[in-house]
Write a structure and sequence with these properties.
By secondary structure, this protein is mainly alpha-helical. It contains eight helices and no strands. The longest helix is centred in the middle third of the chain and has 32 residues. The C terminus is likely disordered.
Length: 206
């Protein structure tokens, strides 16, 4: 398995770093075990010392994440029709499918933007969005904003740590990762509170 963090650190002064950022953020969009956040944070930390370009870090990460989010959506669109045929009207699974489709129609932007900050959540949301045949144009618009926001936030938390602790790179990285966890936790709490009022309705049959 590739050690993405070590690879990024070994290329910190090389243009190839941005290719690594594209690759890791692309793969992390549908393979939750790929650790994109720490890699982006490290790149952000080194931007504070001038060894990387923070604008290029954000741009490369955004590009990779955007392309990566298209993969589960495309897979969902591909298998969505087959899935719908296996969900008879009146069943709980069909009700869950129809409920999620309505939720996306009503607040698709909020769902896609907030789940982008949650490693497993972003994969499930993008896949489910494809499964319910969410319009491609709206999906592209929402994930463009979501991936740009996530990339900027992740890289800038590292950059902030680098600015505050320029003499201690390990501490700067730790601070960046800590900030990322705090904000991610806060977003998840907000998302769960909003979710309570819109639970999947029960149906008569399985």
């Amino acid at each position: 398995m590739i050690d993405w963090l070590r690879l990024a650190e070994s290329l910190i002064s090389s243009p190839w770093l941005y290719a690594v950022l594209i690759a890791v953020s692309f793969l992390d969009s549908f393979l939750p075990l790929i650790p994109s956040e720490p890699v982006v944070i490290v790149a952000g930390v080194y931007a504070a010392t001038g060894q990387t370009d923070i604008v290029l870090v954000i741009a490369a990460t955004t590009l990779g994440a955007f392309l990566g989010d298209m993969v589960p959506y495309a897979a969902g669109r591909l298998f969505g029709t087959r899935l719908l045929k296996r969900l008879p009207p009146g069943s709980k699974r069909r009700a869950a499918h129809d409920w999620f489709a309505r939720e996306l129609d009503a607040r698709g932007g909020f769902i896609l933007v907030t789940t982008r900050f949650i490693p497993v959540g972003r994969y499930l949301a993008t896949l489910s969005t494809g499964l319910v045949n969410f319009p491609l144009r709206k999906y592209v618009l929402f994930i463009a904003f979501a991936t740009a926001s996530w990339s900027a936030y992740t890289a800038l938390t590292g950059y902030l740590g680098g600015v505050l602790f320029q003499e201690n790179t390990l501490l700067a990285i730790a601070v960046g990762v800590g900030l990322a966890f705090v904000v991610t936790g806060f977003i998840e709490v907000v998302r769960r509170i909003r979710h309570r009022g819109s639970a999947v309705p029960d149906t008569v049959t399985d």
